[in-house]
Protein 1
Amino acid sequence: MAGRWYEPRGLPRHALDSGHWLLVAFAGLLLIWSVAQTAVSGVNDIHAALAFGALIAFGELLRLNLPGDREAAPIATAGAMAYALLLRIGNDPVRPGPAQVIAVTAVAMIVGALPHLAVGRPARLAAMSARLVAVACVAATFRPLANAGLIGGRWWSELPVMLGLIIVAWFLESVVSALIRTDALRTRFGVALSDEMRVQFAIAAATGASALLITFAAEVMGLAAVAVFAAPLLVTQVALRRYAGIRATYLQTVRALARVTEIGGYVETGHSARVSRLAVAIGRELGMPEAALLELEYAALMHDIGQLSLRDPVPGGATVLVAPEEQRRIAEYGAEVIQQARVLDSVADIVRRQSDPCRPADRSQPPPLSSRIIRAANAYDDLVGSSTDASRAAEAVARLRLGTASEYDPGVVDALSNLVMPAA
Amino acid sequence: MDKLSRIAWLYVGAVLAAAVVVLAKGPFTGLNWSQIGVLGLLLVACESSATLLNARGLAWSANTMASLAAVVLCGPVGAALVSCGTLLGVRRGPSAVQRLFNTAMYVLSAYLAGWTFLAFGGHAGTPGPSSFPGLIGPFAAAAVVHVAVNFMLLDGVFWLTREPGGAAARVGLDFKLWLTDLGYGAFGVLIAALWSVLGPFTPVLVLIPVFVARWAVAQFAAQQRAYEATVSALCQAVETKDFYTRGHSERVSRGAVLIASEIGMRPERVGAIRYAGMLHDVGKLGVPTSVLQKRSSLTDDEYAAVQLHPMRGLDMVREIGFLDEALAGIMHHHERIDGRGYPMGLAGDEIREFARVLAVADAFDAMTSDRSYRGARPVPEAVAELRKWAGKQFDPAFVDAFVAAIERDGWTAPEPAPAEEPLRTIESL
């Protein structure tokens, strides 16, 4: 299995990152403060607290893994936001303090996480903390205003404030998650933030709208609204879970089938996996967004599939030693194979142009960045293989540098050299 | 609905006429026109986001949600007027006749649902906190009538336009769609309930989670299709090694699915066996091409190399998470019921069900397609051969299931292989 990040030799993986622990510590303090505060001042409207707490715990129990190693708990978030924004149940005004909202949310999240812990699935403290901080931000702003009676009595005066707060909270949560990812994966912050917001946008919209629906429906339908308006989120979640599942299977299958070239004796064992790991690391170093990284990973895994068309394997599978004309034919054939799937056309394009020089002699369009990355990563792996010898890595990088005039992209080779020779 | 028979025209005409009568009759007093306008817009939005259900252009949309909200808020005539929004749906596909028919259908369903709501004691108008839970009963009755009328009118069209002779093809709509429609219909009462607090902003807020849910379902479906296409493309790439087996995995996969459906396997298992069929021979990659394409009989060493292919296949796909049962199928598809197969020599029930299914489909396709050492045999001869070896090489139950399935649905044997085209080689080394 390829790891999430490239592990440069001799350098320990980014150790436990400070930002991560700062966030968790802050959430822990919030929990302690809010519970203490609520214990002192007493619980306002215990029924509402229990109903919303149950919804949040249920949502946390059904937390969801999204593509790109992310976690979301749409039902829990919607429930917590709705509780933070709640004004009336039936005709009676409800006025929980900000501390109570945070305490109910935090305790319910912990309750919902317990069954996961019981079956040995660890809780992701950072993701849970980010969710709690977002809710705390809404509660701390809205509750004092609402409890003082400063939020008007009609929907057109209440809704804009609520909507604004939900958007701010979503943005805050994205920033926090992006910061954690930047720290852990060596991505750039801007790229991480836009990835985060793109992936979460639809779910955040549904979650926010559901929170508002629950808040307003409680006025007409009482606490029954809490359950009813979680239903569409449940449908969304089931579909997204299956989506994430099939996406994971997809990647596993491509990884497994990419090894056909190894088993057939066309390339060295582990070649496609190593090239794809290195290529993705280079892409990340160069600030490529997540969607492009996924395509790069697919293309890198399948970059040698064209060799299946050869009757006799290239010795050692090292395409770097084969004449350029043949390399291009192998690439072309591989692209044909991938194109048959009809859904991976851009991946096919990357594979097709993987052996084109970075500065074509006829001044035609240079190949896409992903192709240039695969070309360099493939050449590096053909030269170094599974060896961990530092001098061999240095030699290979030196040889690639010689080719930066026309063959290899200098920026790509720089990134590669940073990754494989971190000390230098 | 491209070419309609005379009787179908009469039917469509009658439905249209009934809708026009309903709309013209009124009465139009006491209607809240701005509310009807907003709900009409909601209906247009639902209609515009219809999802296609089958190749004949049958689409499904969440219109029920809007028209049932109108039943509660505006009464029967208002609901009928709101349903006219179907005509304005922005989507490609339906012809003018289809659009008119759909609109008339929704007008009639909404109108009848509206009267049902009143007949069961509901009051048209914006409900307040005191309306619940008294409103639920009449609303449920209205929802059932709405969905029933809608589906009956639609089934009428399908019945009148069904292809002659295609008796086996299902013309009706399935029960699941009924339930889905009722589920979306339930949102109608939520929209109506929220109207007193959120006013015309209600539909916007309700639509967001509903649309995101549908987006998520569509994403899943798209990813699933992409996955299948990719697996099949990669399997074809593997087959280029062995010229004679082109399309073999695809056909074995199809045969295995036929058997699995025939014996009533659960859908997830049918899905798994489809992939197992596609991947059952990936291990052949490890067998030298010269052996695979050999025209004469194999030496002992060569035969041993061929016998290794199920194990090699297993090695390759082991890491694919979903394939638990499929792995056993790939590993053991050359076992025989009498225990004389390879690689393990398992017998009878020791062999997992998937492997026994694959063995039948694999052998049948091998017999009905060309091989380097012999030509293809005709289907009846291959069936006789399957029957002859049932109980020795194959599981008789699966042979029976397969034969029953191909006798009913037919089997497309591969085209005879054209003159051999050589594999590409590298000369420049």
Protein 2
Amino acid sequence: MEEHYQHLYEALSQVDGYIYPNEIDLHWGLMIVLYPYITGLVAGAFILASLERVFNIKALKPTYGLALLTALAFLFVATLPLVSHLQHPLRSYEIFMTPNPTSAMAIFGFVYLWYLMVVLLLEIWFDYRRDFVIWSKTSTGFKKLFYKVITLGINETDEKSAKLDDKLGYYITVLGIPSAFLLHGYVGFIFGSIKANPWWSTVLMPVIFLFSAMVSGIALVMVVYMVVCWVRKVKIDMLCLDTIAKYLFYILIIDFTLESLDQIHRLYEAEESFDIIKVLVGGKLNITLIYIQVILGTLIPLSVIGFFQIYKPAEKIRKFAYFFIGIIVLIGVFFMRWNVVIGGQLFSKSLSGFTSFNAVYSGMEGYLMAAVWLILPLFILTFLLWLMPPWKKVTSHE
Amino acid sequence: MGTKRKLENRRKFFQTSATLIGGTLMYSLIKPFEAIAETKEKDTEDDKANLPLWGMGVDLESCIGCGKCVEACKIENDVPKEPFYFRTWVEQYTVKNDGEVKIESPNGGIGGLKQSVPDEDIFKSFMVPKLCNHCTKAPCVQACPVGATFISPDGVVLVDETYCIGCSYCIQACPYGARYMNPITKVADKCTFCYHRITKGLQPACVEVCPTDARIFGNLKDKKSDLVKFLQKNPTQVLKPHLNTHSRVFYNGLSSEVK
Amino acid sequence: MPKLIFRLFLSFVLFVSVFIFIQQHLKPDSFGKYGHYRANAIDDNKMRTSYFKSENKCKECHQDIYDLKDNDVHYGVRCESCHSPKINASVECKEMPPKVEGTLKFCGQCHAMNLGRLKKGVPQLDFKEHKQGQNCIECHNPHAPWELKEN
């Protein structure tokens, strides 16, 4: 407690201008930056998978299973930053018991459950079902037990069941696209609907969150695909990689357009909150917004991939470029979440002053905790890839 | 023969289990609506008319920024004494001759607000007490994911301390900065109009101690109350009217510099 | 209906039923009575302990001081404004009398010069000039400030 007060006294001495006395402490910290980031990765990875399944972009086939498993690995971890953040985590079941119909946050439990169970798990199950049946016959130990259980006793592998699996999987994916939009759109709405905070309160917020989520998810699958191929020592399918980069480019354009539109609109209307926001962007958010989010995370990737659309350099250069681009896009989108969540709390609702963000390393809201929540899904993904390797699949959908 | 009976049994099994499950489902679906159907008719109409509707008036022409209200509130409501948690506070506005507006509230105004700009630079200066506005259309109540904060039937926005999960969404949603996260109870906290006092016929602590009667508390439905007379006599405003929160704290003498 | 779809649908229905069943049990009893909240929370908020007793309680023992105050300029200042309680309102204040010191700092809380203090009725003094170094109560009776003490 004393340490906590120590931080607050420090923050008090660093107050610039006037803030309401209760605003010294930032209530939403690193964990709340992480949650939209992780759910964004899930939604984005799923959309990439659905590009192949629903829109029949065959070039993306090598990454279909990988994208789904990546989405699943991150979805398992998605609630954990929230639980870290809550002051009373043991009461979190209340969101399921008495969700407030007027609160955007209350949708969380149900959207999460729906997406996890009905969309993601089912889709993976329909795609892998026949493989589970086949694998259960040829494997031993834990894997054999797992495959037997997961088939739920349905052991047909004939043509008719294959067609049914395909059809159902297709419908689930179609259902999954608006579900993914809802999963991440509502997070944007959580911020966009707060009229008290002018940095958050914009109609575009859910859409911006959604498109930057798609950007981050696609970049993540791109990087994961390259790493997995490197670990497995197999050749990367360059057509697939080029196609992923192409879609990353398209969605990044839309994302950049939306974010720019938001800022241009603010600049033009210059209403009450503009003066303090101008100081915010030019000052405390200068590095994280202009340099990292915009230049590093958006403009550089756009120029490089855009250039590749006109002139394709050698494979080796492209591979290196894609990997680098994937990483900086992921960093850029993380900082986009940072700029929204932390940025929105740095200035006072009195529009007359700033407080400061004091980084902590340990504790429930610290950097270490954030690192754990980001690395854990990668371990889960490794486990899932060992359990259900997409490249060992004998069957595949139409 | 054998297969036919097997199919028969299987069908019976599915039928019975489907009925059982369907029955449970039906019952569970009806139960919540039962509760609504019962109570709604009995209490609401009658009681609502008899209940007061609490509100507060703040006379900015009288406030001297002594900070006694802030101190009293902290004592009465067990608010942590550190300068980061306030249910109410007083702001000092100093408009300088060059047009710059200086706003300050050191420790919420406890100990009395001191003049911080030399006389010759001051164009005008005044004090503004702030507190939870108990909005009739409270954005904090709208935002709470579990229903831990609510508007009581007599118009006071309260927090259910045993139910709040501590997500801080209500604190983000309040446009007036009236809420804080209590470090001891770890739930959202704010001015309650001293609900435990007003329901016993007493005044809120801040009103009790104000030496200049700058805070006027009362029942908006009572035409003879001091509050209603205050509203009739003075041109009053609410804070941030463009946000349409239907705040029930009315300020007399609110100058445009007030944030 | 194919076995597959039937089984999945059945598990879904089962899950939803179990969920609703648990929900009804874990939801607090008084929830939803007046709105989307636990109605008993209203009573919880009423049950807090009070510290401030209000002037009528002070008058029960200190009627004389009250009358003195009522006839001088501090008539509008309630007792607890200066004498903030040190104990719970259900305890007799004899246990810990809310004594205060009439120092410059204490009285200056209301009476120090500040251009922001608009109210004409509150005298404002520059304490560097007015009797610096002394305490207010050496000359003024706090309950009847214009009854100056003879020096």
Protein 3
Amino acid sequence: MNYLLLICTDGVSTPEIAAAMQEHTPKWVDEMDSRGVRLLGNGLQGRDSAKTVRVRDGRTLITDGPFADSKEFIGGLDIIAAESLDEAIEVAAKHPVSWYFSIEVRPFRHEVAVPENWTYEQLRYLMLPCLDGIPEPAAVEERLLGDLRAWAEMVDARGVRIVGAPLAPASTATMVRVRDGETLLSDGPFVETKEYVAGIDILSCETLEEALELAAAHPLSHVHMVEVRPFWGA
Amino acid sequence: MSSGTVQAAVQEAFRDEWGRVVATLIRRTGDWDLAEECAQEAFTQALISWAKDGVPAKPGAWLTTVAGNRALDRLRRGARGAELLEQIAYDPLRSPGAADQDDEHEPDMIEDDRLRLMFTCCHPALALDARVALTLRTLAGLTTAEIARAFLVPEPTMAKRLVRAKAKIAAAAIPYRVPPPELLPERTPGVLAVLYLLFNEGYSASSGDELIRGALCDEAIRLARLLCLLMPDEPEAVALLALMLLQHSRRDARVDSSGDLITLEDQDRGRWHREDIAEAERLLAGGGPLDGTASLPAAGPLTSSGAIPGTYRLQAEIAVCHVQRETDWERVRDLYALLARLMPSPVVQLNLAVAVAMAGDLDVGLTLVSELAQRGELAGYHLLAATRADLLRRRGDHLQAAAEYQRALALAPSEAERRFLRGRLAQLSG
């Protein structure tokens, strides 16, 4: 099973937290890489660098900030392979972010194709296409699926997509927090909003402009929205 | 065979075997809905077959085989079955007609299935209300309509809750297993909590369908018995069963003919179920002595040196004190003092304050209640005012007591409790 770990923080740090992150995050990465658990991942730039893209009546609307206006926001992500949710929880609970903030564990719909020789330099922009979970008429759904396939073919032809994978619904998410050495779980995504993240696309494109252009071409920015986030170093 | 006899046999089998049949089918197919549907069909088939051929020697094995065969048939027919069938090939379902000799193959596996199911239903990644609903549906075999009635929610809401929980189990790969030893200390309390919540839901007669609520208590006790059987080395499971039995022993004495609650002091002890109390006492005695609380640390750091009893054990020991001819309030006080340290909830502290007062320090008890009130955690909780009123009444401070009863009256959530408080008020002025 493949899971997405969404590293959630409220951006407020203390010297203690910063020190713990600096010390334990690389250790976590090493351990999970050597266990073969971690497939890919990196941190994202702060919430101020987030853009949310909507296309309505042929006009592209770009707003600053994440799609969900909440105290906590996504500060990074890891794609992991685990045998069950229990292992995914164990992996998340070992990540220092879960000791101070929280980690959302969300299953992917199916196995994620992660290129074997990916590099951190390739991870430049993250796209989070959103859905609202309200079923559309069958004809609309079918057209949307066709558009999604066409969009994927287009970005893959450009050679700018490192990973693209749909997530299981937000109702299958689990929040993991560790407090006083105890692993605390709760059902549901990190922020309960009408819209939720339906998948991830990790892009290697050079500029933010290109990432925003691809987001505006994404079918879900026409019905809902797509959040675009630069990775560290982008 | 008369249809009445067959029906009774099927009903008995349903009570005893439903959870086992479903649990085994889930392990073999990984499909919760399929397991439930095929179990249902097997019980329907039993009504016909048992009338014709008689009740089998091992109804559980018969039902598991029939349900298993149904599942195989359905999988063969269904397109999505091919992959599942391949998996099942490694864990073959029985051939038809082998009902009576088949459970010798894997008795341990089957016995463990219900424990697997229990831990999976109570997995902490599921919402608490979903854990409770899932436990009642899959393990206890209550219908969605019955569970909805018990929790006072519309049936479609309950159905959605169950669908969502099962979808999460499948999509997020919540494992169908008894957690490995290192996870057990973390996961077992969650299972106990769901069972106790079930019991309390049935026990608090404040609202809902009486019959269904009674069934919740029975189911909780039955599941706790099962858990004790499956986890004989878990002292808190035994303690929880004892605690439930002690509370349940008063079921016929705690409500009067008009449905009003009767306090422990005023209950007709002749109506207590002595056999439940005796069983609970036996269970607790089996857990080794709790030598007073003298040996327990009333202050200072609590370590997990093994000397500390669990919270269910403490609550059960308190409940035992309350069923004695004379309540040993000093012991109750000491037990609550320890419980308050392990489980520092304001309600436990309120109970500690009462025990302190009843053990002789009425003024200290009242001070503790006032301190609790000042902290505001129980603001709006009618029992805080009612407790204070009761202690003031015992001190002979009738004027102040009346004021507190009035306050409690304004906060009381149910008519039965308001009637009780009005009765107390009338006694004061009388």
Protein 4
Amino acid sequence: MLHLYAIVEPGTQCAGLGPDGEELVAIDCSGIVAVASEHARPLGSVPTEEALWEHERVLEALLEAGPVLPVRFGVHFADREALRAELQPRVPELARVLTEVRDRVEVSVRLLARDDAPEPADEVDAVGGPGARYLLERLGTRREAERKLDAVRTRLAPLAVAERSRLLPRPGTPATAAFLVERHLLDRFRREACELERELNDVALICTGPWPPYNFVDEPIGATA
Amino acid sequence: MATPAVAEATRVCYLYGVVLADRLPLLEGVAGVGDAPLSFVDADRLVAVVADVARRDFVPPDAERADTAWLEKAVRAHESVLERCLDPGPVLPMRFATTVRDDADVRALLREHQIEFTASLERLLGHREWGVKALLADPAALAQHVLRIRDDLSARDRELVGRSPGTAYLARKRLDREIALAGDDVAADAVVAAYQRLAAASVDALLLTDSQPRAERVHLNAAYLVVEADEAAFEAVVAELDLEHAELGLRYELTGPWPAYNFVDQPERP
Amino acid sequence: MTAFAPSDEAQARRELARQVTLVELLDRILDKGVVISGEITLAVADIDLVEVGLRALIASVDRLERLRPENADV
């Protein structure tokens, strides 16, 4: 049973990176390498926080050595044959994506805002009743979130190679954005985000990372979100 | 020691505690165990506070039939009787659920232990037992204090900001463990000093080892025998400690006055 | 008057960042990356993890807000 961590370039150092110092296996797939660990049986179906962090730690260690296409937690194959069968047809695409993310890391910028209740609509606006008012309020909240997210993208996208962002339905966390950033621009990016937060004043920007490029390996980098 | 006579008797005598004859408590309005009415049995200078209970209404709990509701109610009743006894003077508390056959047995008990009971009560005259606990109310505050005094740990804490999330997570766990251990040391030093300051304000002091589990971690659990006239000063020390150690996340809890459970056999310090 | 030392806000911010990091991890590791169709045996519990993470997050935002110097009680 093989648990998959990531796709990397041939020659990437994988020794001793596994959980509890276990060996990882590098499975060659004619042009790319699949990094996995071998187990007698599948992992339990409910991941613990520990297990998730272990998976992430391995990815980050691989990221130190070269480009990484992260695979989500829990993907496993019965054996090498099954794995190769799955990956073989996709080698050209995966090899291309690897070059696109070389020396680039993902930074997340999450917007956090206080859940201030929107102004209650005037009595006069109660045309359509409470349902309409609720929708108008939600729309107002959504527009606010869009405005804030736009400010973030406008300011930070120029420092990034690509960006994926989305509005979130929950109050308190109106939006989150992922940026693919050249490694050497990471500090500059963070500084810019700090300054932006000071200017925006009514929202917190929490930067986390550097992450392996989870959000940028599904589609060609050039495509816009 | 249950004799065949006790096992067959329909009524038994429940013993709460022993007081001095010239310090009788007022027992109006106090409900005893099983609501049985309270009375006194005297022998010379000693008076036992008792209740005549029907054996079938009151069966001392044993491990197998742990009726926790009954037990809780009975323990509270026992305590409230003892609290009332504590108003005018010291009381030697009997262990919960001590029963003998009848008044005659009570008198015999008092006579048998007359010298030691009288000596204990006289020693306790003018004193009351108080309990002091130090609890970790705010672990985050303690952690912050540790980071303030340990440059090495706070440097590692700051370093984590730039690390990638997975590696940071592991390093964070290790750091948190070290901060917690350092915090334990800080708290231990603080409560040792506290124990001694409180001992200086009292006649006798004792560290208690067993205590009920609490939501907050217990760093100190101690009993003090305090001269009644000095109680205000003792309380002031507790208040000072509570204020001074707040930045360590500790809070102090004063309970009492208690029947002198812990100081019945202790000789006074010279 | 409660004075908030700069370190309190920095501390709260780091704590908030830690919580955000967990939410970000869950967002990625359970859901993103290259799509490889092996066997996946993840229970629905993964969604609960995100919920829990987000709830903790919202509570932390309030705390951070309160620690901002302009919000301190005078």
